[in-house]
TrEMBL record:
Chain intervals for the UniProt region annotation (Disordered): 208-237
InterPro entries cross-referenced by the UniProt entry: DNA_clamp_sf
Lineage: Bacteria, Bacillati, Actinomycetota, Actinomycetes, Mycobacteriales
Protein name stated in the entry: Uncharacterized protein
Biased composition (Basic residues): 221-237
Gene3D superfamilies given in the database record: DNA Polymerase III, subunit A, domain 2 (3.10.150.10)
Organism: Mycobacterium dioxanotrophicus
Amino acid sequence: MRWGTRMTVQLMTTELVRILKEASLFASSATTIPIINAVHLEASGQELVAVGTDRFVLGASKTELDEATGGFAAALTLQQVKTIIQLAGACKQAFSKVALDADGKTIRVAFSSGETITLPASEIESGVHRGWLTLLKSSPDSEPSKAMVLNPQFLAKFARVSGASRMRVHFFGHTRPIRVVIGDSFVGMVMPVRMADDDSMDWVVPEWVNPSPEKREPKKAVARKPRAKRPSKAAVA
């Protein structure tokens, strides 16, 4: 966004909090890499999209705006996102709305319940997320894969997306990113872990799950020696 160009969007406070939380799940916690230690926002038509990535996973969440608009784009550091979410939690009106106003120098967040905060615009270049989103395009020329190696911590992030009781997963090969769709307002991507050269693509039941017959035979009971009888009191006397 060019300095001096003021753009404003308005939406429900709960929806702003939702997309900020969901996108921040996938952003990097490394403050040394500002461009990914942030949530990138952009409005198009009557939708506002929030995007976050740490280079291994990506999440994009959208919501509806009160009015159609275009040209609004901003990058919020994760610390700024945290500040906005905390302030939103102080709103007393359950159905409050929030207006985001950006001019390239500052980002003003004003809630209909009266709370307002003005944040300095970060030096992070806005709009870079568009290149990240192109990675979500399908790869029809890739061969399907029988097996993939994934980091379970990456997958756990998707469980925290709103309405994540069911998600659709698309595979495009064991070296290609997996695409994830949750509901109608979230898409994401997770990078696979490189498979070791000696890893088999075929499924093999582990031996400990299905042991061979000889290993399933129960151990024979070991005969115990009879215990010696204790002498009676009469015999001792």
